[in-house]
Amino acid sequence: xxxxxxxxxxxxITTSKDFLPIFDPSKGEKIGEVxxxxxxxxxxxxxxxxxxxNEWSRYTPLKRSRVLSKYKEIIEKNITELAKTISEExxxxxxxxxxxxxxxxxxxxxxxxxxxxxxxxxxxxxxxxIDSWSIRxxxxxxxxxxxxxxxxxxxxxxxxxxxxxxxxxxxKPSEKDPSCSLKLxxxxxxxxxxxxxxxxINGDKHVVNKILExxxxxxxxxxxxxxxxKYIYETSSKFGKRVQAxxxxxxxxxxxxxxxxxxxxxxxxxxAFGSAGERCMAVSVAVAVGDIxxxxxxxxxxxxxxxxxxxxxxDQAQMGxxxxxxxxxxxxxxxxxxxxxxxxxxxxxRNLKIQGxxxxxxxxxxxxxxxxxxxxxxxxxxxxxxxxxxxASNYEEALDLVNEHQFGNGTSIYTSDGEISRxxxxxxxxGMVGVNVPIxxxxxxHSFGGWKQSLFGDHAMHGIEGIRFYTKxxxxxxxxxxxxxxxxxxxxxxx
Length: 495
Ligand code: NAD
Hints:
Blueprint (H helix, E strand, L loop, with lengths): L1 E3 L1 E3 L2 E3 L5 E6 L4 E7 L3 H18 L4 H17 L1 H12 L3 H18 L2 H4 L4 E6 L2 E9 L2 E5 L7 H12 L3 E5 L6 H12 L7 E3 L4 H9 L3 E7 L2 H13 L3 E5 L4 E5 L5 H13 L9 E7 L3 H13 L19 H16 L3 E4 L18 E4 L6 H4 L6 E7 L2 H10 L2 E2 L1 E5 L3 H10 L4 E4 L15 E2 L2 E3 L5 H7 L1 E9 L3 H4 L9
Parallel strand pairs: 1-5, 8-9, 8-11, 9-10, 11-12, 13-14, 13-19, 14-17, 16-17, 19-20
Antiparallel strand pairs: 2-3, 4-5, 6-7, 7-23, 12-22, 15-16, 18-21
Helix pairs in contact: 2-4, 2-7, 3-4, 3-7, 4-6, 10-11
The structure holds nicotinamide-adenine-dinucleotide (NAD).
Nicotinamide-adenine-dinucleotide binds next to helix 8 and helix 9.
């Protein structure tokens, strides 16, 4: 049975004897253990990160970029191995796992442009013989705390940019699927990254607290559930750290009466049930406007019935299990509550048994119609394959639903009306907005982040926001009063 330790200073090590279980969600069996690190491990990681920062921050941006290019090549060569590691512990299909690594690699690709991205601003003669310019300098030791649902991609929203900016980075991955982080760290060493620039420390909330309280760590990047994001934001701020903490979501997709229904239905299928709904950009609410509701629900129901729910080892699988027994129970109790509160259960994913995988944490696609905003299934994030359809009589009512919800991660509208589309992109109080696309996840060169209870802090992840987060701005004003007098007279060339 595998025992996952830490990756500190280029070594796979730990001195802790405390281990947490890792499960295969398809079978419901324990397949390994991950270390719950102790204070000694933690001191080691800080020492290593501090030493590494001193060396790495002096590398030229071009040299850092070359290490990142090599890293990208190595991951590309090993993508299937990495994806299998993700699927084994997370349960998602292999295609989903591979797709997520590719999205993460796009951030590495973006970070390769660091010599250009770090270029500052310059103004000559802000006063007589006075010039002024700005530079962005690394912070020092930075840290990331990540969720179970994207064990490669979400860390890759953070560390490629932090490291490209000249920082060292400590990753504390989810204890539920930690194995791929060690692989990501080993590949970086193979690419020539000096030891200690990227360290991985495993464990639960006790390790997180050590990170938040440590005075040598300058910044915290967090992605996970809203209550923990809020706690991370408040605690990190109290300890004087820069912090970006991304939380949960309840993403609405509005279908207008003039929408291309087939496209909307296809979009909803992938967005609601892909990765068993365990995506922060999953669509969990479809808002049917006007008279489109009946047709929409019928078509989604038809398609959802034929979705193949199976373990990732089955290459026909379209949806795998959810992460844990506790999470399966929580999702099923939300379905119970929807029934009790009067929503119309169109498709019931409870009590699904897959032959040969009877103990797996499978929940089938579930659809509720006539959901109202007072219901628990509407108010809260379920984080499973449960779609709520809410009926709205017009666009204004649909927009109010989006804007009044506590979460503000993503939203989308399907319509063929340009005026409505423009109104929606302007007036929706949401961080990431789509028009006729189901999951508006920004590319690496834009930035990812929600509003309201979906993000605490001022900076979204990757893109230019990422560069700003991982660097400190310095502005220099410099005066050389004799420089003009000393030089030859300046004349414009004649041609
Ligand atoms: P989680 O909040 O339970 O855990 C995230 C991380 O925090 C893990 O590393 C965990 O060890 C640590 N942690 C857990 N409880 C803690 C505590 N009490 N104190 C300190 N640290 C703690 O989240 P999860 O279940 O792993 O992931 C699912 C959640 O992540 C969902 O809510 C989902 O919406 C969210 N998510 C958000 C985004 C986004 O971009 N907004 C992206 C992915 C996932």
